[in-house]
Every structure is written in structure tokens, then in C-alpha cells.
Design brief:
The protein has five helices and eight strands. It is α+β, with helices and mostly antiparallel strands. It has a domain at about 45-205: 2-Layer Sandwich (Peptide Methionine Sulfoxide Reductase, Chain A), CATH 3.30.1060. It is globular. The N and C termini lie far apart (about 40 Å).
Length: about 230
Amino acid sequence: MLFGSHKNHLPTAEEALPGRPEREFSVPERHTVLGNPLLGPYPEGLEVADFGMGCFWGAERIFWRADGVWTTLVGYQGGQTPNPSYEEVCSGMTGHTEAVRVVFDPSKISYGTLLKLFWESHDPTQGFRQGNDRGTQYRSAIYTHPHTLSGRPQGTAQQSEAEASRDAYQKVLTSAGHAAITTEILPAEDRPFYPAEGYHQQYLDKNPAGYCGIGGTGVSCPVGVTKTES
């Protein structure tokens, strides 16, 4: 994951690669660890959360290990180019960041708990980089959903909860001497999630000694819970 182009400029719609109307590669049917479908169908009542936090190989593993997570998959989000390839994303000319989609059971794990994992598992102050990984595809991001996968309103208002958690975490980061959070928090409705190629899905399960550039600040986030939120 270190060989991406070191881009520090998000392309405009006019500059971005054109992409394609359909995905040109297949995605595995099931999660190699959890055994559940990657692309659905998903059981009634599950919710979805989307996060970008650097290299998606290590980020995905953080979430699939959490109790209450039903499935995870990696992909590209927040950019201009429809159905991009990994090589196109690494060029810096699609505008996407590497993202993890987390499908979870809100009766077992709350969105607040996922946010806590997100903030504590990477450094959200680094802009277009994460550790040694540099480029727009490594930026920190939260893409929020107003509805469950079945179309019902989410049990929590993700946008407001994500913004509140950012503000709370900024206070403790500032006290610890860290810079300002650069995480973008935007509605997922206008930022489609495009699944990545099959070899990226659950990469660190298939390659346990593989590269993982994810690392936190060491500062605990004061938001999130370990019990179910109603």
C-alpha cells in the first residue's frame, strides 16, 4: 500500500477520470472471517456505517473483530469517478478515499462504539496521509447514513453523532498537544461506496503478515459506549 501516487489535491469533476457505468471485476460472495454476504442481502434491522482511516486492509480488520459487526467490506468512497479501479484511485485522479463499510447489529453494538474505534485506531489529524501512506486516498473520513439498509430511519442520527464525537475528541487531542482533526464528515447519499477488488477484501485474513499502516494517537476518545445504546 506504499506505492500510491503522493497526491495532495482532490480533483474537480472536470479533472477526474471518467470511470464506467458498471464494475469491471467481481467481488467475493462471503466474508472470509464472518461468513456472511459482503454485498447482501442483509437481515432486517441491520445498519451501515462507512469510514475512511488510511489503508483499508488494517482498518477493515479492526471492525470485523468487533462483537456485533455482521460483515465488512472495503471500497472507494467520496470521489468523482464511478466504479473506479484500485490503480485509478492510487493515481489521485478519482477523488476517492479507501473506505470500510461496516454492517452492524445496533442491538449488539452502537454507532457510538464504532466511532470510538474509528477515532482511536488512526490519527485523524494528518490530512492526505496516514503514517507512511500519502495521498488523497488515505484521508480520514466518515460518510453518514440517515436510513437503515432496508430504508427505515437509523436508530441514531449518524451525522450529528459523528460531529459531536469529533468535537469531543478534538478537545482531548488538543489537551494532549495534537493538531486539528482533518476528518471529513459528509452524507453518504451523495458519495456512493464502490466495492474494491476481491483481493483487497479481508486482505489481512488471507495475508496475516501483510502490510498494515494503521496506528492511533494513543489518546482515548471520550465518546462511545461498550454496551448497547437504545
